[in-house]
Amino acid sequence: MPAFLEHVADDATGDLAVMLTGGGARAAYQVGLLKGIARHFPHLKFQIVTGVSAGAINAIYLAAHDGTLAQKARELEAMWCELSCDSIYRFDWKTFLPFRSALASVLPRRSRFTQSRPHGVVDTRPLRDLLCRILDSEPGRPVPGIEENIRSGDLTALALMTLDYSTGQTVRWVQGRNPDVYEGPHRRVAVAKFTIEHVLASAALPFIFPAVRIGSEWHGDGGMRLAAPLSPAVHLGARRIIAMSTGYQQTPDEASTPVLSGYPPAAQILGQLVNAVFLDVIDEDVARMERMNDLLRKMAPHERDGLKPIELLVLRPSVDLGKIAGEYERYLPRKLKLLVRALGVKETESPDFISLLMFEPSYTRRIIEIGEADVEDRVPDIRAFLGEDVGQLAAV
Questions:
Q1: What is the model's pTM?
Q2: Residue 304 burial (C-beta neighbours within 10 Å; 0-12, 13-18, 19+)
Q3: Alpha-carbon distance 58 to 92, whole Å?
Q4: What pLDDT score does 264 carry?
Q5: Which distant-in-sequence residues (6+ apart) come within 8 Å of 282 by Cβ?
Q6: What is the pLDDT of residues 38-54, one digit of tens each?
Q7: I need a labelling partner for 17 at 20 to 30 A (CA). Which of 8, 176, 370, 387 fits?
Q8: What does the alpha-carbon distance between residue 82 and residue 286 come to, in Å, rounded to a whole number?
Q9: Helix (H) or strand (E) holding 123
Q10: 179's torsion region: left (phi>0), alpha (psi -120 to 50) or beta?
Q11: In degrees rounded to 5, what are phi and psi of residue 158?
């Protein structure tokens, strides 16, 4: 049964939620959306915040800081525009050489070689240090601000998703309101006081970023088995959700037009894998929810068996952020640039793979601007979606 078909308590408050998807450096686009929305609705509050993968960084920032949405959006923009690849990860050929991993697999476990073998293509200690700075926290310690915002009523709940590598389950970590728990063989809910490790784990791109230990288990990017990304917000009581996707929705003509000729290079295959894992799933979940909403609205309330429509607004890029990343490939660190070129990134028109790693200000500034412009084009839709809130907010 899809997540949005599950029963919801009748006394749920119908909070407004924002769902922030993944996409590596493309998560900067969400900052543009937030900034654009804040320009028109500066006092808007998201009572429920959910995030996965790189979206978890934006999500915990919103949940942990005080101030208006406009203030948080400006602070996020400043952070993203100051980033560079070196602010997020370090790449060294020694961590990538295939023979190193192969050698480690046959050496005794206590060998000095296995003790230092890498767990990812890049070292994400710079990202850990960045999170400590912007969240005013330390590894292993609860991130300050979240509990205070919950007590004040500015925030109802925060949820971040990871993948538990030991069980293969998607873990929905929640701080705040107790969720309407629905667990299955591939997912579970865990109440938490969020730490830096939860964010690092949610954003740990498979193979690229190393897994992160939470408790006794190792966790990675929460987008890998997240079949229903809208579900956490629903279970936390949201009746309205703004979903901020970083995936461009192609037209039928664009979707059927080849972007290369001949045998696909590794970069093209990786790009398709990235889209399948991190972007396509939100489109499928949105389509299911919209179909179910249409069906429920046609039914009399007493026939719905406790189910209620979920108001949904999806904001997504008007242009392909993967293609744009290709224009900035030259700004990647030299060693990483050599690697992606070896993978054939120059042979495809939409190098989605490098958009995950393009934490460079020239790229992030541009896609933030695209996010702002996309909001301007959707202001009537946003205003209609918020409904009565618009009048209330205008009076603040």
A1: 0.87
A2: middle
A3: 27
A4: 81
A5: 21, 229, 230, 243, 245, 247, 314
A6: 999 988 999 999 999 99
A7: 370
A8: 33
A9: strand 122-123
A10: beta
A11: -125, 135
Residue 102 CB neighbours (<10 A): 9
What single string gives the DSSP state of each residue in 248-286? ----HHHHTS-S--SSPPHHHHHHHHHIIIIIHHHHHHH
Question: Could you tell me the two tokens for 347?
Answer: 């042979």
What does DSSP assign to residue 223?
T
Helix %, strand %, coil % of the chain (to 5): 50, 15, 35
Q: Is the pLDDT of residue 147 over 90?
A: yes
Residues forming beta bridges with residue 243, ordered by sequence position = 19, 314
| 359, 84 Cβ separation under 8 angstroms | yes
Across 222-370, the runs of DSSP E, i.e. the strands, are: 238-244, 311-315
Rounded CA-CA distance 355/364 in Å is 10
Output DSSP code: residue 184. B
Task: Give the total residue count for the chain.
Answer: 396
**Cα 150 versus chain centre, distance:** 22
What are the two backbone dihedrals, phi and then psi, of residue 260, each rounded to the nearest 5 degrees? -160, 170
Helix (H) or strand (E) holding 48: strand 48-52
The pLDDT score that the predictor gives to residue 167 is 93
Nearest to 90, CA basis, from 122, 132, 54, 121: 122
Are 379 and 311 in contact by the 8 Å Cβ rule? The answer is no
